[in-house]
Amino acid sequence: MVEEEKSLNFIEEIIEEDLRSGKHEGRVLTRFPPEPNGYLHIGHAKSICLNFGLAQKYNGKTNLRFDDTNPVTEDVEYVESIKKDIQWLGFEWSEELYTSDYFETLYNYAVDLIKKGLAYVDDSSAEEIAAAKGSPTVPGTPTPYRSRSIEENLQLFEEMRAGNYQDGEKVLRVKVDLENPNMHMRDPIIYRIKHAHHHRTGNQWCIYPMYDFAHGQSDSIEKITHSVCTLEFIPHRPLYDWLIDQLDIYPSKQYEFARLNMNYTVMSKRKLLQLVNEQVVEGWDDPRMPTISGLRRRGYTPESIRNFCERIGIQKRENMIDVSLLEFCIREDLNKSAWRRMAVLDPIKLVISNYPDGQVEELHGENNPEVEGGDGSRTIPFSKELWIERDDFMEDAPKKFFRLGPGLSVRLKHGYIVTCTDFKKDDQGNVTEVYCTYAPNSKSGEDTSGLKVKGTIHWVSVTHAKEAEVRLYERLFSEENPAAAEDFKSSINPDSLSIIEKAYIEPDLENAIPAKGYQFIRLGYFTLDAKNSIAEKLVFNRTVTLKDSWAKEVKKG
Ligand code: ATP
Ligand code: MG
Fold it and tell me: Based on CB atoms within 10 Å of each CB, which residue in 32, 175, 276, 421 is the most buried?
């Protein structure tokens, strides 16, 4: 077999060049730097697969660094969830680190800059600073504080740390270039005063470094070789390099790739938090959420998410990925791994008139016929009365309806061929029972009846069926790009969740394994909702339908 030669993405090309030239002593050390202010989403998965994937490919390592410089929005709950999600995705970090552990070092870096005449304390208000910064076409002007002496700056910065000032009273800025066409270079703020409790450092600090003064410096402290981030940080790169140069610390380098955007989804933590807080969804792990925890609860596997990230690849330009691709990836995975089971979601009763009263047969069904050599089997009780799907019966069946209707025959999956003889309706005209006869010599696998039928339907024995709740999910948004609207919540799909309170499942599903995928034959892929299931009532979540029904819907509409 010829091994498929995959072309390198642009970051791999850079790394291979660096390895050839001996830059970074031949090391590859990446980092994944989440801010612990929310749960990870599928966009983060792209970054995780990239950062950890690069390290794996080049025999390097990846640090997990919590970018915890924003005490107000951060929480340990998020730290724990992030760690769990990365592990679940199948990656192992080298070191677990926190930017807050570097607060003292970062403070000293700032003092260094002051001593070099490269940083100053500014008493101007946020508005005054913004106004004096000018605009991309108008150069900035110095505030009166830019010319403060080194001694005064050292004194004031120390007092800022000591808590002598209120929030917003003073900031520390670096002295770069007020006329630089790149606004990020016009004396950016590197420290602000924030009297707030931090989830790790408590009340030890009341000044916190800004992103631009924390990120690159943390990279440098850890000797990160390739600091990969998303495109919006391109204009920050000159400042990233400038600060490292001025401080004369380890020359980490920043590279940018296009973030994942996916249609019918929002992907910013701020918006996802809003959905949680306003109870549009049940929580961060609601199966409709694009979070890793939501996808996990929905029945996505780590393999399917890694495959998705592999397929979409790494680009230098923003693009929009079709959510159908994600659905394709989970279908592909579950087709190979999910166990086949029978469940009836909208039941009517089928009575086999000529089947002996009280008789029960143990039929056999393979767990997964797609697996070469098999994946085991289970027994399925069969008896005179069965639940079948309401829409598998039609009173006036059209010609191509290969299911049940008066006079029509069908095979019961793993069982016999039955022929419909009669049916009963209630006062409202709803069919309540369907009657049929079976051919005793037509049993699946040992059929000598010579009968030919075109359709097979699923069923569950009435006396053996277990009740379960089944939750059917659709896309959370009905607009392709919900974030483009003024209010992203205006396109929330009102039918994103339908609950079937009483479905019937085959008895083997009572032992459903958490996190395992099950194909409910003809209906879709499902998984146990371990969070909401109780012994008396299991709950199943639909992961995905068997086919891309959405594509058809769109064409019809
Ligand atoms: P959000 O915009 O959702 O709040 P963020 O960028 O603020 O995300 P961080 O916790 O700072 O979230 O992100 C950690 C890492 O994940 C960063 O390196 C960031 O670039 C990356 N990342 C975040 N969102 C995406 C995305 N949609 N696609 C790819 N990478 C992403
Ligand atoms: Mg961020």
Answer: 32
